[in-house]
Design a protein that fits this description.
Blueprint (H helix, E strand, L loop, with lengths): L1 H20 L8 E5 L7 E5 L9 E2 L33 H5 L3 H15 L9 E5 L15 E5 L1 E2 L5 H17 L4 H19 L15
Parallel strand pairs: 3-6
Antiparallel strand pairs: 1-2, 4-5
Helix pairs in contact: 4-5
Length: 210
């Protein structure tokens, strides 16, 4: 009896050791939870890794260099036709440039801006005047490597929220398109404080911006 228990215990230990050694996705990153009393079984789910931390940039990097990125407009979009262009769901996605173009430009502009941090993941190749507000899709004068994380919270995700708010105001509350475009091109932080609020929310949006 004692020998049988020892063998059983040894088998359990060996099985657990093999499971741990088999890799992070089989043990360290897998938990088991009850699917529900009526189902009567367990199912695995993955524990998501911690959110990737981006380098934090100084406040001066929150806005683009106006001599390099003054902003540029999409001539197709005018106040008269917003109901056929930017206010149509999916319009921005339909004119967004391919990633191979924006990534190549991002690499070049990171050097041009003189950023010390060269990790591409730390930046969004941002349209200064958003596509959803009539900004040029491809002009280098309207694209810049915007840091995701900036001190005080003025990073790329905060600007996304401003763009979403301005788009709603233009399409549903009568804000002039040109007013929204100027607000983004001149000082998006001041525009955020005016149209969204005094404290930035730099958490990533999880819905389509148009």
């Amino acid at each position: 009896m004692f020998s049988l228990r020892r063998k059983t215990l040894l088998s359990v230990i060996l099985a657990a050791t093999a499971l741990i050694a088999s890799g992070p996705h089989s043990f360290a990153h897998t938990l088991w939870h009850r699917q529900g009393w009526h189902h009567g079984f367990y199912r695995p789910y993955r524990v998501l890794p911690p959110r990737v931390r981006h380098a934090i940039h100084p406040l001066r990097d929150a806005r683009p260099n106006p001599s390099l990125t003054p902003g540029a407009l999409n001539p197709v979009v005018t106040q008269a036709d917003i109901r056929q262009t930017i206010c149509v769901r999916g319009y921005s996605r339909s004119i967004r440039p391919p990633e191979r173009y924006t990534e190549r430009l991002k690499r070049a502009q990171i050097r041009e801006y003189g950023y010390r941090d060269h990790w591409l993941r730390d930046y969004e190749e941002d349209h200064l005047i958003a596509l959803s507000l009539g900004g040029s899709p491809t002009s280098p004068e309207n694209l810049w490597p915007q840091p995701h994380e900036v001190v005080e919270g003025w990073g790329s995700y905060a600007k996304d929220r401003l763009e979403s708010r301005l788009h709603w105001l233009v399409c549903h509350r009568g804000l002039a398109l040109a007013t929204a475009q100027r607000a983004l091109a001149r000082n998006w932080i001041a525009a955020y404080k005016r149209y969204v609020g005094p404290v930035p929310n730099n958490h990533k949006l999880h819905w389509d911006r148009g």
